[in-house]
Amino acid sequence: MALDWLLQLASAALKLFIHPIFYFSFILAFIVGMFRVTRERKDFSTRIYDIYQEIRFILPSSLAIGTVLSVITIAAGLALPSGLLNFIAAVLIIFSIGGFFLLSPAWTMGAAYGIFVLSDWFDYPFIPYDNLNLNAILSVLSIVTALLVIAEGVLIRKRGHQGTSPRIETSKRGLKTAVHLARRLWLVPVFLPVPSSRPLTSFADWWPVIDTGAVSYSFVLFPFLIGFSMTVRSTLPSLAVKSTGKSVIIAGVFTLFIAILSYWIWQLSAVAVLFAALARLAIMLRHYNYEKHRSYFFTKQSKGIIIAGVLPASPARKMGLDIGEIVTKVNDVQVSSEPEFYKALQKNAAYCKLEVIGTNDQLRFVQGSIYANDHHELGLIFAPEEKEYMDDSIFTD
User: Fold this and answer.
1) How far lies 315's CA from each of 79, 323, 339, 370, 373, in Å?
2) Record's InterPro entries (predicted)?
3) Number of CB atoms found within 10 A of residue 295's CB
4) Widest pairwise Cα distance in the chain
5) End-to-end distance of the chain based on CA atoms, in angstroms?
6) Minimal CA–CA distance to 161: which of 247, 232, 101?
7) At 244, is the secondary structure helix, strand, or coil?
8) Helices (H), the chain
9) What is the pLDDT of residues 67-121, one digit of tens each?
10) Using CA atoms, how far apart are residues 149 and 273, in angstroms rounded to an integer?
């Protein structure tokens, strides 16, 4: 009995590698990486991260999330028909064309839910569910949506702020400044029970909990795509992204509460999915409104020069310099512009000492060696030298 379960899980895991979404995610991340590198070279005459940066984030952190969700879906018997899963895969691909920000589960799963219901109401069932219990399927779909929204929030909070890409933006006043783009794509593989003609012997009488009307089940490891895109202008990218992640988690928890109630009142499944979509939209608009009336963060300073980016594996990275810190002195020379910075740097061709105000407003000193073959000097990216007053730019991702 246990062996049968293990074989089913192993078979489902292997089939992940033939699922179109699996390969599509890597291709999509590679294409986005190409465009990012082109933009970074145009803005700063060098790339910040290599072309594979987006690919590196696709799986490692999301595997743990997928494992937790798999335990929940299997233990609770959250079964979805294979026809619906195939349709969800199509929705994920279509939504990805519009950008990573559309790949929030609140919108992709919500769209799948809405089309699934409408196709049944208008008696055009192009998403087959083999005469299973429709109400139970809708409850399961809303619960899975809530779980994925929570997963999205966790991934944003834990990983969304890492490796953000600076870019040059011009305000409506024609002044240039640096902003940060946080853009991530995650592949979250989740084991799901699906109604099947192949019987799967249950290890307990209570499985599956939600009765869809099927007599037998098998497993599928479905690769859910979760995307995130956010432009940060008025604060440190880590602060804005983590705050957004926390809000998404809270929205997911409330969605899950409503979705669980739909087990008894199936109409609440629609309420749960709609709440998730509206809550996610509200979170996005809140960030927009927060920045709309605030000044840019990466602007010319009254004292020193602010760091807008740090190249990986550069001397600056090894010295512990970070985004948002302000360099006030180089080799004991006061600096307030990029030319002054590099002129002071040449004072000592093999060694440098910097006076830095950290993001915690504390003054500290850093020092390190410079080698002749070091790329892009220390590896620091600075904001343009133009002064900005109030953020009156057109917000576009």
Assistant:
1) 52, 14, 19, 7, 11
2) PDZ (IPR001478), PDZ_6 (IPR041489), PDZ_sf (IPR036034)
3) 14
4) 79
5) 52
6) 232
7) helix
8) 2-15, 20-44, 53-56, 60-75, 82-96, 105-121, 134-155, 237-261, 268-292, 315-318, 338-345
9) 999 999 988 889 899 889 999 999 999 999 999 999 999 999 999 999 999 988 8
10) 10
* Polymer length in residues for the chain: 397
- Please enumerate, as own/partner, the contacts of 281-287 that have beta carbons within 8 Å and a separation of 24 or more: 283/244, 283/247, 283/248, 283/251, 284/101, 286/247, 287/230, 287/240, 287/244
- Measured CA to CA in angstroms, residue 250 lies from 141, 180, 239, 310, 315 at distances of 19, 25, 17, 32, 40
Predicted confidence (pLDDT) per residue in 294-340, tens digit:
888 988 888 899 999 999 988 888 899 999 999 999 999 999 888 89
Read off the tokens for 5. Answer: 């379960």
- Say whether the peptide bond before residue 20 is cis (omega within 30 degrees of 0): no
Sketch out the chain's domains with CATH numbers: 1-292 (no CATH), 305-382 (2.30.42.10)
Helix pair angle (60-75, 134-155), 10° resolution: 150
Identify any residues that bridge with 330 across adjacent strands, giving them in sequence order: 333, 354
